[in-house]
Amino acid sequence: MKTTLFLLAAASLGLAATAASAQQSTVNGAVGGAVTGAIVGGPIGAAVGGVVGAAAGTAIDPPPQRVVTYVQQQPMPTQAVVVQQPVVVGKPIPREVVLTQVPENPHYAYAVVNQQRVIVDPQTYTVVQVVP
Known about the structure:
This protein is α+β, with helices and mostly antiparallel strands. It has two domains: 2-56, no CATH class; 65-131, no CATH class. Helix content is 45%, strand content 14%. It has a four-stranded antiparallel sheet, with helices on one face. The longest helix is centred in the first third of the chain and has 28 residues, at 29-56. It comes from Rhizobium oryzicola. Residues 1-22 form the signal peptide. Keywords: Signal.
């Protein structure tokens, strides 16, 4: 009985490590959550993981390096845009913030908010990356 419990605990730890690795890959959203949930908790975990993954979003992969470099090279605006909420990856910024399209990649836009350069999804205003 003790051996069975020990093997079960060891297997659970191995699956948890696999799940952590899966969360760091490019699989996102409902599919990634379902896969991770299935690994950790079986069919019920898959259902819960899918819901949680969908809520977390599906487009939080970092933008291509060319987009980041382009945003880093742009001059800081003379007028500061300040918002009350913190700027967080995965959360939208207010629609009042004026975005500048990235010319070579229309899937991304940027703005300078609270003295931080942020790359956003121009359709949802969701912050994809805060650029140092």
